[in-house]
Amino acid sequence: MESIESRTTLPATFERGWSRARRKPKLRKLGSLVGVYVIMLIVAAIVIFPIYWMFTISLKLPREIYRLPSLVPQAPTLDNYRELIEKKHFLVNIRNSLIVASSVTVVSLLVSSFAAYSIVRFRYRFRGLIGRVILLTYLTPSSLLFIPLSIIVARLHLGNSLFGLIVLYLTFSIPLSTWLLSGYFRSVPPDLEEQAMVDGTSQLGALFRILLPLSLPGLAAVGIFTFTGAWNELLFALIFITSEDKRTVPIGLQYLITGDVLLWGPIMAGAVLAALPVMVLYFLAQRFMVQGVTAGSVKG
Amino acid sequence: MSDRSSRLTQSRLSRRQMLGGIAGGVAAGGLLPGILQAKSAPALIQSGGKLTFWGGLIFSDEANKMLTDTVNAWGKANGVQTDVVMINQNETNQKVSAAVESGTMPDALDMGLDLLLLLSASKQLTPVDDLYDKIGAAQGGWHESVDASLAPAKFGGSRNGIPFGAGGNVLFGRKDILDEAGITAMPKTWQELSDDAAKAQKPGVFGMGFALSNVGDGNLQVSVLQSYGGRIADDAGKKCMIKSAQTKTYMEWVKAAWDKKLFPPGATTWDGAGDNTAYLSGQAIFIANTGSVTIKAQEDDPDLAKSTIYSALPAGPVMQVSPIGPNVRAIPKSTKDVARAKALIEHLTQPDFLKEYYKVAIYGPVLKDQDDFEAFNTPVLGGLRDLVLHDTPPGAPDVYNTAYADFSANFVVPKMIQRMVVDGLSIDDAIDEAQKQGDAIYAKYA
């Protein structure tokens, strides 16, 4: 009987232990999940708060900004946006920046694709050296270059023009883009292009039909990087652009600081408007950024 | 020899020194004058052609517009195509650095005294003694402090700029808070100021809203140091002399105020707008400012503007130091039609224009006939007029020269304070360090 009880008790204990043991990993899993979410929430809050603060300041009047700091605007207003657009002509700055950044991105991607393709796929003397030296041109601090560049810009009559700014930015973006794309092109197996060429495609066709489509994530990343760089550039724009109607976004924002006075409301409204195109771009391109297009492209 | 190489051989300062000085961030100083009906320029000029003018952008849209409109109207009346570019005073140095090297300087431009000094030393400017004398004679003469600021001896033997407005600091005080603490008058000495600040200070409100950081406002501390009897250099302006018993006394005063938490904790890292922001947010009782805070407060916070009182900067145990900083218009050497540029500058000194312009700008007068302008009946602008009438030329009691400008641009005094209050260096060690930095700077120009 005892043994029977023992036998019946044992399974019950075992059952409890087993179910506890089964519950433990679940609890542990839930606990770690909660922990991960809490950490992610904290990180998200740290990242998002400045953006929120920027937005909320843009909706406040000066007195509220200075005297009544609060998380939520007490009397929300669009006056800062109105002032920025109507009095400071900020939309002109945005238009100029769009022209400059888009042109730089397109030209830079085109030229650097060819350059990177050449470095990665062709064999010629000093190829490796060129590949390395090309990055060095990008690494020179711009603050050291603005005096010599100002001489070149003046001699080429490129001063105070958006075209001049585009040319100037390309001198920085093309080397970097070439270097980045070289790395990406190297990760794409040449077999695919070779197979295409065996099937009758030209070298150029292999570049456009095989390599570039497979490199979309890399192109997207480089494009976004180039666009953002040109969109945010301040020093050269400040030096080489003088006319009000040719100012880009960073200069427009910079001119909201006059002497020792900062117009916080319009500055923050400008920052919100300036951030929108870049945010949209990131949103649209994020699919390419995270996608591994080449994964599994070569089997066997 | 090309223009470019002749420019360089003529330079008393090397190009590297000049660019270094400019890029060092010497305060360019704001400037400008305004609109009005266009009159023909007093001087005879040839019509046709183009004139580029870089005006200094200041915090007054009205003043900026007035200046632009006046220049354009002058151009129209004289058959000259004018291109007015308002340059933010924060960026003047970079713009000028690039323009000098690339040969794209405008025909005339506004600048502060520091930049004038550097460009004069490198022979980049056209002397305008004749115009300076002519304008002075026509309008009651230049104020002595302004005249002394531009003494030819400091600028290579000539007058290289025409002053159009004097800047300087006025002491701002929160009357409402001082009243609550039973303080009825603005302090006359720096010691009184720190005592009043300690008495009136309350949680969230700091007594002394003065920058101790590496910005132009931080160099107010040079004046305070001088008012304690400290000196930056010897009487000849050749050798750094910051290490002294007087400097030590001054540093003890700063340390005591810091320890009592009279300075806002961020004052050692403020940007140029730190004092403005502290005052406009109601977090400072006393600040020293050129007047931009008043304009901002009048626009955005009339209650704050009403509860603000003004006075001259306090004195130290030895003297009162409250330097003015004239802003000038100059003509670069590269300007082809100097007569036309002079005509424009002369036009911009016309009383009809300046009477209106001064009302919306933040400058004190530079010519004696301007003292009675209606604009100077307001507390702040009146205070700036008093500065011009009674106070010290730039740098005084030290010699204002390129070494002094470089010393200021390197913020040696604010850094000396930071080393003491932030890094915990002893007063003596902080002074020793500043002396070494000063020695290195003055040695460059010896």
Layout of SSEs?
The complex is a heterodimer of chains A (300) and B (446).
Chain A: H1 2-58, H2 62-67, H3 79-87, H4 90-121, H5 127-139, H6 142-155, H7 162-186, H8 190-198, H9 203-214, H10 216-232, H11 235-240, H12 249-254, E1 257-258, E2 261-262, H13 264-290
Antiparallel strand pairs in A: 1-2
Chain B: H1 3-10, H2 15-23, E1 50-57, H3 61-77, E2 81-88, H4 92-102, E3 108-111, H5 113-121, H6 129-138, H7 144-149, E4 162-168, E5 170-174, H8 175-180, H9 190-200, E6 206-208, H10 220-227, H11 245-259, H12 274-280, E7 284-289, H13 292-300, H14 302-306, E8 308-311, E9 324-330, H15 338-347, H16 351-360, H17 379-390, H18 402-409, H19 412-421, H20 427-445
Parallel strand pairs in B: 1-2, 1-3, 6-7
Antiparallel strand pairs in B: 3-9, 4-9, 5-7, 5-8
Helix pairs in contact in B: 3-16, 18-20, 19-20
Question: What does this protein structure show overall?
Answer:
The complex is a heterodimer of chains A (300) and B (446). Chain A has 300 residues and is mainly alpha-helical. Chain A folds into two domains: 2-58; 79-290, MetI-like (MetI-like fold, Orthogonal Bundle). Helices cover 78% and strands 1% of the residues of chain A. Chain A is built from 13 helices and two strands. Chain A has helices at residues 2-58, 62-67, 79-87, 90-121, 127-139, 142-155, 162-186, 190-198, 203-214, 216-232, 235-240, 249-254, 264-290; strands at residues 257-258, 261-262. A two-stranded antiparallel ribbon of chain A has the order 1-2. In chain A, β1 (257-258) and β2 form a beta hairpin. The radius of gyration of chain A is 28 Å and the shape is flat. The termini of chain A are far apart. Chain B has 446 residues and is α/β, with parallel strands linked by helices. Chain B folds into two domains: 3-167 and 327-390, 3-Layer(aba) Sandwich (D-Maltodextrin-Binding Protein, domain 2); 170-321 and 410-445, D-Maltodextrin-Binding Protein, domain 2 (3-Layer(aba) Sandwich). Chain B is 45% helix and 12% strand. Chain B contains 20 helices and nine strands. In chain B, β1, α3 (61-77) and β2 (81-88) form a beta-alpha-beta unit. The longest helix of chain B has 19 residues, at 427-445. The two termini of chain B are 29 Å apart. The model of chain B is unreliable at 1-41 (pLDDT under 50).
